[in-house]
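User: Hi! I have a protein structure encoded as tokens and I'd like to know what sequence might fold into it. I'm fairly new to this, so please keep things simple.
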């Protein structure tokens, strides 16, 4: 199971990613498009540092606009919005994907069928194909607008051999993920779960990959996952009694965790978090292989 750490379009985290200890990065077009170079400098740093890059479309910006209608997403609290129409946004995204195509491994389609209808999403998908970009496109399943038979057709149609399923939403029942994943696994098509880095999810559903911004929690909010001795555990950095925290084989100066210099502090805490998530990735990959699930 691959764990994609999100947020590296933000240069604050570039010192961390430059260590090349982050294997898989999840970046957002929504944020890169606002940078003066459309995110080129950020993409260059990430491309030079990780094995696999997935570019997210930024669909959450449209969902949050219509939250009052029940179209919630996992990162609702951001309440981010875009003033562009869906077609304008898609036009810019397609242009960006074509210009930056050599710099990423996969990109997620603009999966807002609940807003513009799935028919429109399929029309955009044809545009992606016409531009010769479909070989890196991750198509997405939202069961509310994609019947199961259509999902099976999407799996068969995938050129990238990589698809995704929506993550959990507030006020909605959990999807039958195993039912949705099984035909993908049998077809040799990998499945990504958005913002699904949760223990009960990772133990119940054999996603090929998931993504999360939670690795930044210990940096920004003072409590995050880190390797404490030989185990992953949550550490409250506001309590200096946790001075036994260390990387498995690469000790960090504990003083740096509490440094008044924010850059020093962020880097030290970030590296502890990165190593913890590397360990988590290894653990769940082994767990599912013991259960007979081995993705290729």
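Assistant: Happy to help. Inverse folding works backwards from shape to sequence: for each of the 296 positions I chose a residue that suits the local structure. Here it is:
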């Amino acid at each position: 199971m691959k764990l994609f750490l999100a947020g590296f379009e933000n240069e604050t985290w570039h010192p961390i990613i430059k260590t090349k200890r982050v294997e898989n990065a999840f970046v957002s077009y929504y944020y890169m498009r606002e940078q003066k170079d459309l995110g080129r400098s950020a993409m260059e740093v990430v491309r030079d540092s990780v094995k696999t890059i997935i570019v997210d479309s930024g669909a959450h910006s449209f969902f949050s606009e219509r939250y009052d209608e029940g179209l919630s997403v996992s990162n609702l609290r951001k309440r981010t919005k875009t003033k562009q129409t869906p077609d304008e946004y898609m036009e810019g995204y397609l242009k960006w994907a074509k210009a930056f195509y050599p710099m990423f491994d996969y990109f997620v389609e603009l999966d807002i069928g609940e807003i513009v209808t799935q028919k429109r999403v399929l029309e955009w998908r044809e545009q992606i194909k016409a531009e010769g970009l479909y070989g890196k496109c991750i198509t997405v399943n939202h069961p509310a607008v994609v019947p199961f038979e259509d999902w099976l057709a999407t799996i068969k149609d995938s050129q990238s051999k990589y698809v995704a399923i929506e993550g959990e939403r507030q006020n909605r029942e959990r999807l039958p993920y195993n039912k949705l994943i099984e035909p993908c696994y049998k077809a040799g098509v990998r499945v990504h779960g958005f913002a699904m880095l949760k223990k009960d999810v990772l133990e119940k559903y054999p996603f090929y990959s998931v993504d999360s911004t939670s690795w930044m929690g210990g940096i920004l909010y003072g409590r995050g996952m880190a390797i404490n001795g030989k185990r992953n555990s949550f550490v409250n950095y506001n309590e200096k009694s946790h001075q036994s925290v260390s990387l498995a084989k690469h000790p960090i100066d504990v003083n740096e965790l509490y440094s008044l210099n924010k850059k020093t502090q962020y880097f030290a805490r970030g590296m502890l978090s990165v190593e913890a998530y590397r360990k988590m990735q290894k653990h769940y990959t082994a767990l599912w292989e013991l259960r007979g699930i081995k993705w290729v």
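A useful reference point when you look it over: Residues 262-290 form the longest helix (29 residues). Feel free to ask if any position seems puzzling.
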